[in-house]
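Priority: low. Protein: Avidin. Input follows.
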Amino acid sequence: MGTLSCCLLLTLALLGPGATTAGKCDLQGLWRNELGSNMTLLALDASGTFSGSYHTAVAATNKQIVVSPLQGAQQHPGEKGQPTFGFTVQWQFADSTTVFVGQCFVDRRGKETLETTWLLREEVLSRRDTWKATR
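Result:
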């Protein structure tokens, strides 16, 4: 049987008062999801790349959860009002990496929401165990 992978829809909502013009998403800022995880995205550069940090509220580990760095890119920065984006989190407390892809949406009231899907890959001892390495 092939690799089993699972995706979860993750919604993040910007904290604080609306910091964007109506109808156009701005990824920069502090985001929190429904499980209590926090993500901070720094300003995008001219090519649409950004960095930041992610502090997850949930993890399958007994180790202490710590803030982990992220790197990402937004498609066509400044051109679209509801852009697509992706970023990678290098977990500092586990032998795994997670990639997120998504889109930023703005509702009629100006509230920004990120709709994302993620894929986590953890290190396994051999290629034979690769089937259980991806969630």
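The mean pLDDT is 83. Residues 2 and 60 are 23 Å apart (CA to CA).
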